[in-house]
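Input (structure):
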């Protein structure tokens, strides 16, 4: 009996500590949201509720903003922030627009838009299964998009072969397939809209090779890549993330290629690591960077051959001109990251032999430029 009586107390104590940590993080998020979107609001009283049916609520008289414990504990933090913004939008209607009875009408939707809130969270009820579009690796919402992505996935899988010639041929065919379907993908981007996908690294620091992969993804696909971070409510810490934004098919393939490159770096290192003496950690990092440098050189050559003299001359009535695609994507990114900052990287010491060998190995990884009209290359945040 004593043991059974203590268990709820222990759980209550654990929840209390978690709730305190979550409230502190929500307070920081509130300040950041106000800064990012240019609002000067009086912070509300934040509360964690035990409701299983109401994700969040805003009580204007008491100025209490509540979020459900079950929302925070069972879903990604980015979904919690969507609900959080929904309730902040109610606060804006009350205290900025002076319309406490705005409900979920046009004025409320205006506040949601100013906060960069996804459309699926601008209603009175939100389906958590649809709140964050969880794109499976290599999937797409359209039939043609699914077929293109599935073919590329199969070719990239062959690119993992230990047979160097077979792997290079598979990657080359994947690039040719993407180039051939370029205009189809442009049309799909116009029809299906843009998506935002988050890759969590599970690390509190972003390794140098992941930053380089992010740059390569921007060069290779018509996507924006942002290096950011996301809070983990169970661990009470933040992990670095890679944010992919663009047309759904492009984001799906870029995500698959991210994991493909991660896996190939490790596999090639395990094969060649015994050839390098000295500091093993330095050699491993240098080998990773060298592989990506070699791959980048091959990529630049492929881009020069795949992109014609005038992209705009190839557009038809079913596609958007390059400038319009870029503007559309830029507006999509700005709505979610309104105050982006570019930060330059620092030069790092490398293991000479490992780096030089890896550059040569990296040139054998052939992935031709899949889509033209990508946005400028660079690491953000």
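Output (sequence):
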């Amino acid at each position: 009996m004593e043991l059974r009586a203590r268990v709820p107390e222990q759980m209550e104590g654990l929840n209390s500590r978690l709730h305190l940590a979550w409230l502190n993080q929500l307070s920081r998020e509130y300040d950041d949201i106000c800064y990012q979107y240019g609002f000067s609001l009086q912070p509300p009283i934040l509360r964690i509720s035990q409701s299983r049916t109401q994700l969040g609520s805003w009580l204007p008289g008491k100025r209490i903003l509540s979020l459900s414990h079950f929302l925070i504990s069972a879903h990604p933090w980015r979904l919690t922030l969507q609900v959080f913004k929904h309730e902040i939008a109610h606060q804006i209607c009350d205290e900025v627009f002076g319309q406490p009875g705005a409900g979920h009408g046009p004025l409320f939707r205006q506040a949601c838009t100013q906060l960069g809130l996804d459309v699926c969270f601008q209603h009175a009820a939100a389906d958590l299964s649809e709140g964050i579009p969880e794109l499976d690796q290599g999937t797409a919402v359209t039939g043609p998009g699914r077929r293109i992505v599935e073919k590329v996935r199969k070719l990239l899988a062959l690119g993992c072969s230990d047979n160097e010639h077979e792997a290079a041929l598979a990657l080359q065919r994947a690039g040719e397939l993407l180039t051939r379907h370029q205009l189809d993908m442009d049309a799909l981007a116009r029809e299906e809209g843009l998506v935002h996908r988050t890759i969590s690294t599970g690390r509190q620091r972003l390794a140098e090779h992941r930053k380089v992969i992010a740059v390569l993804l921007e060069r290779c696909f018509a996507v924006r890549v942002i290096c950011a971070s996301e809070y983990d409510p169970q661990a009470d810490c933040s992990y670095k993330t890679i944010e992919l934004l663009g047309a759904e098919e492009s984001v799906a393939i870029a995500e698959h290629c991210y994991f493909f490159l991660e896996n190939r770096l490790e596999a090639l290192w395990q094969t060649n690591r015994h050839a390098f003496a000295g500091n093993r950690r330095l050699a491993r990092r240098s080998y990773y960077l060298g592989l990506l440098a070699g791959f980048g050189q091959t990529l630049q050559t492929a881009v020069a051959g795949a992109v014609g003299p005038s992209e705009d001359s190839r557009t038809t009535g079913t596609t958007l001109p390059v400038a319009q695609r870029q503007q559309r994507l830029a507006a999509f990114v700005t709505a979610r990251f309104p105050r982006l900052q570019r930060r330059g990287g620092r030069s790092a010491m490398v293991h000479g032999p490992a780096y030089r060998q890896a550059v040569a190995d990296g040139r054998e990884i052939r992935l031709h430029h899949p889509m033209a009209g990508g946005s400028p290359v660079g690491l953000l945040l």
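Notes: The two ends are 54 Å apart (CA to CA). The chain is about 55% helix and 10% strand.
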